[in-house]
Structure formats: C-alpha cells, structure tokens
Design a protein that fits this description.
Elements (H helix, E strand, L loop, with lengths): L6 E10 L7 H21 L7 E5 L3 E6 L5 H21 L7 E12 L4 E2 L1 H11 L1 H8 L6 E6 H6 L14 E7 L2 E8 L21 E2 L10 E2 L62 E5 L4 E3 L2 E3 L3 E6 L12
Parallel strand pairs: 4-6
Antiparallel strand pairs: 1-3, 1-4, 2-3, 4-5, 6-8, 7-8, 9-10, 11-14, 12-13
Helix pairs in contact: 1-2
C-alpha cells in the first residue's frame, strides 16, 4: 500500500502502570477495566466503534480516531470521562488501574496489519518515556497521566475548551530511542504534574516560563509554546591577554585588554615589545575579571586582578596606562 494512503488522525496510546506485577486473574480484570474505560470515554463524545481503529497491546491499547472526530473532544471530554471511569473502578477494586496516555496527531497508514507512521511512534514513546514513568511514580495517588505532543498542545490544548485545562500542563523534553521531542504533561485534578527534577530540559522556543508564584521562580507552565524567552545569557568572562581581541562590547567597542599608548593610537600602529612605531615605550596591563570595555586609557566596568609590567618611562614620566 502506498504511503499516499496515509491520513491525518489523532493517535492515542494507553499503557497500564505496574501490570507486570499482577497475576493472571488480576491482569484479566485490569484489561477488562481498561477496555471498559476506553469504551465509556468514546461514548461520552459520541464516537462509535467503527470510527476508531483499536489495537491490543497486552497491558495497553493503541487507537487512531477517524479524521472527522474533533481533537478538542479527545483532550477534553474524552480524557475527563476516562479519568472518572478509572476513579470509579479503583474505588471498589483491590488492584488499582493507573494509566499513562500518550497523544499525538499526524499522517497514519493502515497497511492491513496495523497502524504505521511517525505519529504512532511518537505517541507510544511519549507514553513510555522515562519522564512519564517517573512522574507517575511521584504521583502515587493519581490514576491518569496524559502526555501530549508539542504540536497537539500548541494547536489544540492551548486553545482551551470544555474540560480542557492548558494552565495545568507542564513541558519537558522526551528523549527515548531516536525520539527527541518536547511534550506536555497533565494529571487531572492537579495544578501541575510532579515532573522529576532530573528530567531533560525542554527545547528553546517551546516553554512559557512564569516569573514566580506557587511553583517558584522560573517554573515551566502552560499557555502554549512561545518563540524564545529573550537572548541567551552572555558567556562567563574569560581571562584576556594583551592584544587579544574578544567579542564586541557595548556600542561596538572591542572588549579586550589593549596595549597602552598615546590616546587614540590604533593597536595596528604598535610594534612588538610594547613600543609603538614612533618609538614611545608603553606599559602592558593584563586584566583578569569582568572588563566591560577599555577605551582611551580608561576601564569601563568592574576590574579585578590587574598586573602591570612597566617598561622604560613614557615621555610624560608617569608611566600611566
């Protein structure tokens, strides 16, 4: 089948947490509850069975929705109903069913054996990522974690809607196998998911940071990806050597330690050994520290660790640099 037959679809990948510790009977009950929760969630948005391609994954489910199903319903009413179904099941069950859900959208091909496409791969990786697993470990009282792709967050979640709460999502970088994506994490009824402290940093231009509040300064918050957060911080100051040029300073002034001489004498006019082409002996200065600029024999900015090596006296007799 040609890849031209691929259709843009919303992909859902669900996986049960800790299913490997269950016995056979408990696994059977877990699977029945998982399929029941998915079916109830589909019914809540008016999605019939024939509009969903669903594949069994043992302790999980892979699904792709008909292109005509509005994705806002899936990140809103569908997820809320799935959450409520899990709560109801777990209230009367000794074996809690806790799900991680990965969601993405993009071209998907059904080759007769199953679903194929990067949208499928990414949804599965978001669900199974180390960040997702550790986040659920840090939220033992929660029954559902939702991880959506950056595209899905920016184009669907961030727009809001019924039962859609973009302000409760947080972003983190997901790196697993060949996947390297920014993803957005959400746990229903929590103001923010407890992302692990050692998670990979999210990519530039995809995180909206607050200036402070309940989450502390610099917290990653919802609200949609933004194009950068200003220029990158400057490089830490490096030791300068005499006559070595550094990056341009304020107003185009070279940030460097210059060989001293008569005011306005260009560096190019100076000869070796600290003597300019006119025969004037000058003083060399090595400045270690934060030098904003050195111009016309004046340092502009904070200077530490200055070492002066004096040659024969300059014509004015003071050896000033």
């Amino acid at each position: 089948m040609s890849s031209a037959a691929a259709v843009n679809r919303l992909v859902v990948f669900g996986d049960a947490c800790g299913s490997g510790r269950l016995g056979l009977d408990a696994k059977r009950r877990m699977r029945a509850a998982m399929y029941g929760a998915f079916a109830e969630a589909y019914a809540s948005v008016g999605v019939e069975v024939d509009r969903v391609h669903q594949e069994d994954r043992g302790d999980g489910i892979l699904a792709a929705l008909d292109p005509g199903v509005p994705p806002t319903l899936m990140v809103g009413t569908w997820l809320d109903t799935l959450f409520q179904s899990l709560r109801e099941h777990n209230a009367g069950s000794a074996d809690r069913l806790r799900l991680r859900i990965g969601m993405n959208a993009g071209p998907v091909l059904d080759d007769g054996r199953g679903l194929v496409g990067r949208a499928v791969d990414v949804a599965a990786r978001l669900c199974d990522s180390p960040v997702a697993r550790r986040t659920m470990e840090r939220a033992p009282g929660s029954d559902l974690l939702v991880v959506v792709s950056d595209w899905l967050y920016a184009n669907v979640v961030a727009e809001g809607g019924r039962y859609v709460e973009p302000e409760t999502y947080r972003s983190a970088r997901v790196r697993i196998k060949e996947t390297d994506e920014t993803a957005w994490f959400h746990i229903p009824r929590l103001p923010a998911p407890p992302l692990p402290d050692d998670r990979p940093a999210s990519g530039p231009g995809t995180v909206h940071r607050s200036t402070g509040g309940a989450d502390g300064p610099g917290t990653e918050t919802g609200g949609g990806p933004v194009q950068g957060d200003g220029p990158p911080p400057p490089d830490p100051p490096q030791p300068r050597t005499t006559g070595t040029k550094g990056p341009a300073g304020p107003a185009g002034t070279a940030d460097r330690a210059r060989t001293a001489g008569p005011a306005g004498t260009p560096d190019a006019a100076r000869g070796a050994g600290g003597t300019d082409t006119a025969g004037t002996t000058v003083t060399h200065i090595n400045a270690q520290g934060d030098v904003a600029a050195f111009e016309n024999n004046v340092f502009h900015g904070q200077v530490t660790g200055i070492r002066k090596s004096r040659g024969p006296a300059a014509p004015d007799g003071d050896g000033a640099a």
